[in-house]
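Mods, move this if it's the wrong board.
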Amino acid sequence: MIAEAIRRSPLADYAGRFSALFDASKGEISIRELPFLTQINLRTDPQDEATMQRLGSLLGFALPLSPNTVASARDRRALWLGPDEWLVVGDPDQGKTIEQSVRDVLAGAAASIADISAGRTAVLIRGDQAQGLLARGIAIDLYPRVFVPGRCAQTLLARAQVLIERSDDDAFHLYLRSSYASYCADWLLDAAADSNLSMALIAGPPP
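Not the wrong board. Structure tokens:
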């Protein structure tokens, strides 16, 4: 008898602790993993107008050309990573479909496409204290008049490389490598506990 493989997200074991943090903070901080999002790394020449137009028609929006900005429509978004590089994010388990569609559009163009979904996860951090929590470990200015909704940046969270996106006035997306997602989750929970929240509620089980 062959055992059925069960897929687990990198932060599956943290759901209870995230829920306890929400309760302990009385809703001022919410952390939730967004597992299995499609994440496609895309590189192409932004000066190739025909290619950019085809990509825009496929995605439903033009790829952002201003540094550290985000464009989105419906269930897809694209985050600017560099002058010729973007992260295209879509619904869970759409990696093969989106990747093949992009490859079809870019046929014959100078481009690089890689589905990196399997090695990444995403976390949504929301609430009145979300910015303050992240500011404890991120050096860039998260003040809302500077880091407005629709902006993103590659930076460090407590020495771990992350991609952060401000998706609303009180909401941030963090895109993390799976290999250190638990480190980032532990740091966020510890930082929240140090902010006079209930350590007993959000701490993990005793060793």
